[in-house]
Amino acid sequence: MAHRQPTPSDADPAAARVDKTCASCGRRIEGRAKWAKNWDSVKYCSAACRSHGVNATDLKLEATIVTLLQARAHDSTICPSDAARAIGGEEWRDLMEPARRAARRMVARGELQITQGGVVVDPSTAKGAIRLRTPR
Fold first, then answer.
1. pTM of the model as a whole
2. Which of 3, 29, 38, 108 is exposed most, by the fewest CB atoms within 10 A?
């Protein structure tokens, strides 16, 4: 039996999707089969991100990151903990993950770069200590 040639309608729907980032955590959204029909309306990567959303503290962290970077030389970097300390005071450790989420959202908008060892890294896969800088 002869094999049938693939037609454009047989194309993988996942390949047709554009990359998206989560509106809450800033990580890359991995497509799922159940989202194929409404891919354009998908905004969050998970139910946890959907329920968390972006609150006032998250927006304040983003503004603080911008302020801290503007106060330094153009080629310098900051740590997300600097923003967490500026807002959180004694409880700054509780703001570390929100600060990293804020940085990832800013990377998705092109306002920031995340580096490790001086090299720009993918914010969705970066693990460990990171630094934040303005785009070059």
1. 0.78
2. 3
